[in-house]
Amino acid sequence: MKFAHDFKQNLASQDFPPHWIERAIPYSQLKKCLKKIQRELQDLGLDQETLRALLSAEETAPVALQYKLRESGSRFVRPKLTVNVHLRDGVAVDASLTPTSRGFLEKLACEILDGHERESLGHIQASRQDDTVPKENPSTGFIDGDVGNYETIEVPLVFDAEFFDMLQNDVNELDALQAEEQKQLTNEITELSKEVSAVSRPSRFSKSDLARWREIFELYLDSNVFFATQECDHGARNSQRALKQLQWFQNEVEKRNLARNFKISQSRQAFARFLRLNASLLKNLQFQELNKLAVSKILKSE
C-alpha cells in the first residue's frame, strides 16, 4: 500500500491541473480488483503455487494451463484461461499432482463429464491384441494402453476481464488527455512564434531583438531539454534530466543578461511565455511518468 499512498500524494503535491488528476490511473481501485482476481482464482483451487506449476507445463503434459490477453489478430483485450487436461475415467492422468491441483482438476472433470463448456480435443483408443492381458502401470496407477481423453475447457474469469476493461478505459482516457494537451501546446507554440517573429524582424528604422533571440534559441538547442541528439547522448529525456537541462538553460540566459537587455517590451512577454510553455511540457512529462509507473506497478503485482 506504500506506493498507493505515494502515488496519491504525488498527484496532490505536484500542482497538476484538477482535470489531469481526475483522469489519472485509479491505482487503488485497480489494486482492489486484483485482490478480487486472487480470490476468484483461489476459489477455483488455483493458488500461486498451482498456477506457476500448471502455466509452466508443456502443452503435451497431462495438465497444462494457457493464458492469453487477446485472440490472435485481435486488438481487443479479452483475458482467456484455458486448461488442457488428459483424463481417464474422469481423473487427471498425472501421479505427481499436488492435492490443490488435483482438487482444481476434479472440479473441471465434473464440468467436462456434465458436458458444460467442453471442447473435445479427441479421443484416442488404444489398440490391443485380443490375447494380451492389460497391465497396470505402477507409476500412474492406470492400465497401459488406456490412453483416455484430452479435453480443453475455458475457465471463466469475471474479475480478470473487469480489471483489464477498467485498465484499458483508464489508459484510453490518458491518451485522450494527452491528445488534448498536445493540441493546446501546438496552438501555444504557434502564437509564440508569431510574437517572436514580430519582435525580431530586422528593420533599419525600428528596434529589433533578433540577435538576442537568436542567441537564446542557440542556447536552448544546446541545452537539449527534452530530447538529445548527440551521438554519445541521444533520445528522449526523463523529467528529472529535463528539469536539470531547463534550469541550466535559464541560468545561462540569466548570466548573459539576454532577457534583461531586450530592447522591446514585447520580447520580455514572449520570453516569459516561452518559459511557461516549457514548464507546461515538463509538468506533462512528469504526469505521464507517474501514471506509467502506476500501470507498471499494477501489472507486476502478484
Describe this structure in words.
With 302 residues, this protein is of the alpha+beta class. It is built from nine helices and seven strands, in the order ααααβββαββααββαα. A hairpin with a 2-residue loop joins β2 (80-88) and β3. The longest helix is centred in the middle third of the chain and has 42 residues, at 158-199. The model is unreliable at 116-147 (pLDDT under 50).
Features:
302 residues, 9 helices, 7 strands, 13% strand
Give the percentage of residues in beta strands.
Answer: 5-15%
Please compute the radius of gyration using only Cα atoms.
32 Å
Shape: elongated
Q: Provide the helix percentage.
A: 40-55%
Spatial separation of the terminal alpha carbons: 13 Å
Domain SPX: 1-302
GO biological process, one term: cellular response to phosphate starvation
Protein name: Putative RING finger protein C6B12.07c
Organism: Beauveria bassiana (White muscardine disease fungus)
Short note summarizing the structure:
Helix content is 55%, strand content 13%. With 302 residues, it is an alpha+beta fold.
List strands and helices in order, with pairings.
Layout: H1 2-13, H2 18-21, H3 27-43, H4 48-55, E1 63-68, E2 80-88, E3 91-92, H5 99-114, E4 118-124, E5 148-155, H6 158-199, H7 210-223, E6 227-229, E7 234-236, H8 239-255, H9 265-300
Antiparallel strand pairs: 1-2, 2-3, 2-5, 4-5, 6-7
Helix pairs in contact: 1-9, 3-6, 6-9, 7-8, 8-9
